[in-house]
């Protein structure tokens, strides 16, 4: 008789993330690789034009009168530049080189000391410096093996780690798109609660706080990216963009967030 082993939170997360994989027949016929993003979607807002989110505030309070910030999966650096100042040094990592180009260009424009590292986390962790605070926004739902990913975040933070994710998978609200174009039902898990459980299982002491993002001053400008981006995500050709844009017009991207943070006190 085979006795089923207890499934850890990390194992449950990995299994549920695997359910989100795009079926091979759809992916194989895709005209473009999905989930490659236009850098402008993740550009940092101009100083003085935005209100700090809860995640921004949790990072800033750990910096006190200055310090360094490592932004993992940084995009254009919205999470890092939101806390500079007080941060005086920024480090960005991302899989897309064009995101890092935007991150570095923004740092030059704002006269902020910065460096970038290309590649996937935690594979490149050994080449990335330790920072006072590590931030990681809207990345975790791209990660299947959550344990090593989070452990590397913790190992790189002298003071605090701040992770921000949506309560459910970010595609959850637009699951109807997959049904409409591909007759494909999307999963309902994992959730942020599973991530918190997996992080706690690592021996860390995460605090989870729910909030709603402040109004985004870039929202109107970013709408131009929505149709093309979701057309690509859905593995559809560019000529379907108007149809996709019409379907998502009344389904805004979720503003609900869960901030997961803990102190390292190194």
Give the helix/strand layout:
Blueprint: H1 9-18, H2 24-28, H3 54-63, E1 68-72, H4 78-81, E2 89-94, H5 97-109, E3 113-118, E4 131-137, H6 146-155, E5 157-165, H7 175-182, H8 192-201, E6 207-212, H9 219-233, H10 241-248, E7 256-263
Parallel strand pairs: 1-2, 1-4, 2-3, 4-5
Antiparallel strand pairs: 5-7, 6-7
Helix pairs in contact: 1-8, 9-10
Structure, described:
- With 266 residues, the chain is an alpha/beta fold.
- The protein has one domain (9-215, 253-263): Rossmann fold.
- Helix content is 35%, strand content 18%.
- The protein has a 7-stranded mixed beta sheet.
- Helix 1 packs antiparallel against helix 8 (192-201) and helix 9 packs across helix 10.
- It is globular, with a radius of gyration of 19 Å.
- The protein starts with 8 loop residues before the first helix and ends with a strand.
- The mean pLDDT is 94.
Concise description?
Helices cover 35% and strands 18% of the residues.
């Amino acid at each position: 008789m085979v006795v089923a082993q207890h499934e850890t939170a990390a194992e449950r997360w990995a299994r549920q993330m695997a359910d989100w994989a795009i079926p091979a027949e759809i992916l194989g016929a895709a005209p473009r690789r999905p989930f490659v993003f236009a850098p402008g979607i993740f550009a940092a807002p101009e100083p003085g034009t935005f209100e700090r989110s809860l995640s921004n505030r949790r990072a800033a309070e750990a910096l006190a009168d200055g310090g360094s910030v490592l932004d993992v999966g940084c995009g254009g650096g919205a999470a890092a530049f939101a806390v500079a100042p007080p941060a005086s040094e920024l480090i960005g990592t991302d899989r897309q080189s064009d995101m890092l180009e935007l991150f570095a260009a923004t740092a030059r424009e704002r006269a902020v000391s910065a460096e970038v590292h290309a590649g996937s986390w935690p594979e490149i962790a050994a080449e990335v410096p330790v920072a006072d605070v590590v931030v990681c926004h809207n990345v975790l739902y791209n990660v299947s093996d959550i344990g090593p990913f989070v452990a590397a975040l913790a190992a790189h933070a002298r003071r605090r780690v701040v992770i921000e994710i949506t309560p459910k998978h970010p595609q959850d609200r637009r699951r109807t798109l997959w049904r409409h174009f591909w007759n494909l039902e999307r999963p309902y898990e994992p959730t942020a609660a599973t991530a918190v459980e997996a992080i706690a299982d690592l021996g860390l002491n995460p605090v989870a706080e729910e909030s709603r993002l402040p109004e985004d001053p870039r929202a109107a400008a970013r709408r131009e990216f929505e149709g093309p981006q979701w057309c690509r995500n859905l593995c559809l050709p560019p000529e379907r963009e108007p149809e996709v844009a019409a379907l998502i017009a009344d389904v805004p991207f979720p503003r609900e967030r869960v901030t997961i943070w803990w102190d390292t006190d190194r």
